[in-house]
Amino acid sequence: MMNILHMKYAVEVAKAGSLNKASKTLLIAVPNLSRSIKELELDLGIAIFDRTNIGMCLTPEGEEFINFAKGILSRIEAVEKYYKDGAANRQRFSISVPRACYISEAFSEFSKTLTKDAAEVFYKETNSQRTIHNMLNHDYKLGIIRYAENYDMYFKAMLEEKGFVYEIVTEFTYSLIMNADNPLAQKEEVTFDDLTNYIEIAHADPFVPSMPMSKVMKEELPDNIDRRIYIFERASQFDLLEKNPETFMWVSPVPERLLKKYHLVQKKCSENKKVYKDVLIYKKGYKPTELDHRFIEQLWDSKRKIFQ
């Protein structure tokens, strides 16, 4: 088996161009260094150096080997630095979630609980399909998925099949939010027909994995809206709602703080009776960390405040 130390010696000899110079840098006697190089060449079955009167010159095979060796030693050095600097002990938190104000509020409060200790935190807003993908393929530890109640059996079966533990966070019907200057903001009750001449802002993600986008749109969105703006970034929705009084959006409940900040009102539509579920998930066998528990505590607290 190739000796990593001998590899390091060979790289230094190639750099120095002679055994004498390399021995001084490595603090090793010339005979011992020479023997180590010969053992390495024997292990590899190649001549790494040509020994000449002017020093040690690399052979073609030696040049190729030294390039490989430099890459290997660089990675070993990175691993050593990683653990010596304590990066391996860094606190980690990762979660993939739907675009929801109560969840982002919880995350903001959770961020205040981070101590001075090193930490890496990942917060990804996306749809349910990508949340599950992130947890299966990109090492996200926690997830919150959202789906319509009529898909409950489908999602539970799928989660169990993929090895997830799941827990209901909340159930709700979507509310309407719109600019306070929108004429509909003055109505006591808003109907689907009232929305016909306005612009709907909608997240451009399918809600159900494996279903065609066209079918999802037909099921999730009323057919009486001719103008829609599809967005992916939650911050953009507030900018649009604030600047354009003709826009509206279906959302999970929004805290009063954000409504005031963006000059918005929140209204219920009695015709909208569809119930949605937000469900916390993580892989079976995973033990939530201290950071996970802190976030979950803030999540329950945020839900209680906003859904009361």
Structure report:
There is one protein chain. With 308 residues, this protein is α/β, with parallel strands linked by helices. 43% of the residues lie in helices and 23% in strands. It contains eleven helices and twelve strands. It has helices at residues 4-16, 19-26, 30-44, 60-84, 101-111, 128-137, 152-161, 213-220, 234-243, 256-261, 290-306; strands spanning 49-52, 55-58, 91-97, 119-125, 142-148, 164-173, 175-179, 199-203, 228-231, 247-251, 264-267, 275-283. It has a five-stranded mixed beta sheet, with helices on both faces. The chain starts with a helix and ends with a helix. The relative contact order is 0.14.
Give keywords.
308 residues, alpha/beta, 5-stranded mixed beta sheet, 12 strands, 43% helix, 23% strand, elongated
